[in-house]
């Protein structure tokens, strides 16, 4: 256990948990896992059309089979909606996974990122600050999604949470870095225990259709060409969604202690962790593995690197291991196998 009292603890199912982005990829998997363990979950989502809403409703249909699940439809950017979710949930723990995702989409649609990731996160922080007034209970822990994108194009590997992340190469990354700063400030000023989670290329069943592994699978099965940027010479620390969920669950009931800020001093109860597989794979190998699992060779269209993209991601998870005794370890072969099996059952 670390000096910050961040030992891994079992899930306390008496805690009420608010999960924003519950109809999204990670939010769905986390909510389902929590519900299976007997927890009470209130899900919040605006069901936007960034990708096919039918997939989002399919996830919700599964969650709604649990009596302990309540769904509140609303938008993070709308303060009254967020406050209403807090009043409905009276949460002990808040997991903010709702956000406008996607690096490339942020180039042409920047306002969506300001509305959701900046204004929306501000509304979450304010609701946590005023939760005693809103629902008669203080929030014991706020966990929120950050991203490996904050590391930008740095050449030093693996990426450690202590690294300088002041040079984002996309607006999406800039908003996620902003979230970390905002959470630290609110923790310092108002004592909100906050844990930021830098996710590394999450994939798996019920995943996001805008992600490369999803579109690659679809195109290979349908015999259509796949677009490969930088001639496949990129590396990604692909992390299976179940490993992400395990990491979050291990932290839920272990909020940061005082003095756990970036410098290890001061009153802020704020901490940031990488959750990644700690094993980057070359994109070309990733595609080869997918081809073997599907049993069909991809038609390849090679293109230059896209604006806002990065050459590699590689998570240093030593702090995650130290504080929680956990390290993601699902191989790309196993994870892609499970995804392709789900994809064929769902779409084919």
Q: Helix fraction?
A: 40-55%
The residue-averaged pLDDT reads: 93
Return the CATH architecture of one domain.
Answer: 3-Layer(aba) Sandwich
Order of secondary-structure elements: EHEHEHEHHHEHEEHEEEHEEHEHH
Which value, in Å, is the CA radius of gyration?
19 Å
Shape descriptor reads: globular
- CATH classification, class level of one domain: Alpha Beta
Total beta strand runs: 13
Care to describe what's here?
- This protein has helices at 25-36, 53-63, 79-89, 105-108, 110-129, 131-135, 171-190, 212-222, 241-252, 283-294, 318-324, 332-347, and strands at 16-20, 40-45, 69-73, 93-96, 141-147, 194-199, 202-203, 225-229, 235-236, 239-240, 270-275, 281-282, 299-303.
- With 348 residues, it is α/β, with parallel strands linked by helices.
- The protein has a domain at 16-200 and 239-276 and 316-328: 3-Layer(aba) Sandwich (Rossmann fold).
- The strands form 4 sheets. It has a 7-stranded parallel sheet, sandwiched between helices. A two-stranded parallel sheet has the order 7-10. It has a two-stranded parallel sheet with strand order 8-13.
- The protein is globular.
- The relative contact order is 0.15.
Task: Itemize the secondary structure elements and their pairings.
Layout: E1 16-20, H1 25-36, E2 40-45, H2 53-63, E3 69-73, H3 79-89, E4 93-96, H4 105-108, H5 110-129, H6 131-135, E5 141-147, H7 171-190, E6 194-199, E7 202-203, H8 212-222, E8 225-229, E9 235-236, E10 239-240, H9 241-252, E11 270-275, E12 281-282, H10 283-294, E13 299-303, H11 318-324, H12 332-347
Parallel strand pairs: 1-2, 1-4, 2-3, 4-5, 5-6, 6-11, 7-10, 8-13
Antiparallel strand pairs: 9-12
Helix pairs in contact: 1-2, 1-9, 3-5, 5-7, 8-10, 10-12
